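request received
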Amino acid sequence: MTTHSPAEKTTARPSENLSPQTLLDMFWAMLISRRLDERSWALHRQGKIAFHISGMGHEGSQVAAAFAINRGVDYVHSYYRDLALVLALGVTPHEFMISLFGKADEYSSGGRQMPSHWSKRSVNLLSSSSPVATQVPQAAGLAFAIKYKWDNKLVDPNDDTQPRLTLTCLGEGSTSQGEWHEGMNWAGVHNLPFICLVQNNMYAISEPTSEQMAVSNVADRAPAYGLHGVVVDGNDILASYDALKEAVERAYNGQGASLIEAKTYRVTPHSSDDDDRSYRSREEVEEWKHKDPIGRFQRFLTERGVLTQAKLDEFEARARQTIDEAQRAAEAAPYPPEEYALERVYAD
Amino acid sequence: MPEITLIDAIREALDEELARDSRVFITGEDVGPRGGVFRATMGLYDKYGPNRIVDSPLAELSIVGIGIGAAMAGLLPVCEIQFADFIHPAFNQIVNEAAKMYYRSNGQWPVPLTIRAPYGGGIGGGLYHSQSVEAFFSHVPGLKVVIPSTPYDAKGLLKSAIHDPNPVLFFEPKKGYRAIKGEVPTDDYTIPIGPASVTRQGSDLTVYAYGMMAYYTLQAAETVAAEDGISCEVVDLRTLLPVDKVTILDSFKKTGKALIVHEDNHTMGYGAEVAAILSDEGFEFMDGPIRRFTAPDVPAVPFSHPMQEFFMPNPDKIAQAIRDLAAY
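response:
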């Protein structure tokens, strides 16, 4: 079944139980991602880095997801736009800066991958690829392994030091790939602890969703796979959190897989190699900037007295300092030795 | 020592590893109650149950994709592709993902995955139940490609594959599943992935082969020894990737003449790589042209019997190729 969240409920929504500190942590997670993302665009325009692919506009659903799962423990198999998500999981701005410059000891790949191809085993963040949707069957495999360990009594299902679900993210365009279909099918057939978060930003590079699918919502396909499907406003971080938290509880409790479609918008071009003036109007982009998830959450928190101007100033200053330091460190860091290209072909 | 068939040896390897290590599981089409369309997993579902022997949807891409994910989560999946001809939908996951995962994650995420598939022709299967696909994958650093030709090798190599921390493609010559019999010890053993095997000592020329062709080549070598007095050294390559250059070159240094036999197409088949290695690193020992005796360059094995037999190398044709080279 597909539901549009938030449903009419008499019980408290999960987001109502979030403490003020947690709400501030979520706001910080969005802000540091946005500022780091902005700095990356600037570095590219200055000719200092070769490539940047942005997640600006997506911070709401990504941070909601990070805070809904057992972050750092549950498996996350993400995609290239998930900067806010991976920063919330524990990738640092310094690590990201090293990856932009391709310097030595790059956290994800040792400098082998383009930036925004994440991997950090210590927080169970899987290695991202460029061919889209390849992560989805793999995410189903990770979820299969979780359930396998439960079914074969190798791991206690209530042990929260172990991964208890797999979260995978992708854009709506990538759901056209057969890999998505096959991963979703396994998740449904085997009732896996699996959450697929589709961040529908209306464009796959230049192609609008009408060229990608004949349905209005990706989540409308969920019943076809036997999954629980939810459409949510991805730019409302707390509504997104509620939908994701319910999906998390379903996964943990053996109630199977969910497809969460977060409606959102990519306020930048696809990447530093894209020019979006050729396929969408400036008016449309401006309209969506007014619906920005960070602005909306900032107003919400300010109205409730959770976020003060002093706190906001502190956050902005901390963000600038963190990013400045990260950039300086990355610029000064050495490159890997060229022969490193020959290492790590096979595991021993 | 008991004599068992190639398929029995494969099943024994699976059974023993399932019993020994709870991380091992099997998935693929019809692997469960059906026991596999070739009976490779016969009896295992009854013994280990649906939590270990998992019938998959009819979808090769995700059979492999699930395997990659489960391997990264610390399990030891053995994924069966029902026929190697159907592995192509999984090419993206095998080549772009499994092969590159360890490299691209700087060693964070090894993929200890085994993919098994019956390959090869001569069984009336036509274009889509007879293909050789090893050349595509032997080209990809990060993968291992193993092709046994004896029950003893199949059992020992499959056990090694299951525990190898890298993705291993294990192609089984289906024509030999019941036709190839051999002695297999009852006690536990493994054979390391990598080294080729000299299955017949000789001095006039070396024949390099694998799979069903390694089996046929031994017969051809026996024939030319008896009828023509030709002394063939036979090298069963067994592991195609990584390449065992040492055994390949050591034999060539002895004989100076090389014939490579495979049932895959001629152009860009595995034989081309062996020939290149010999001509580059074995030049000083070369006593004749390096020849490849293979299937013709047509899209795949035809169904109609005379056309199939025209396509397939066999012991008589291999023997003639040996004679031709020996006469040079």
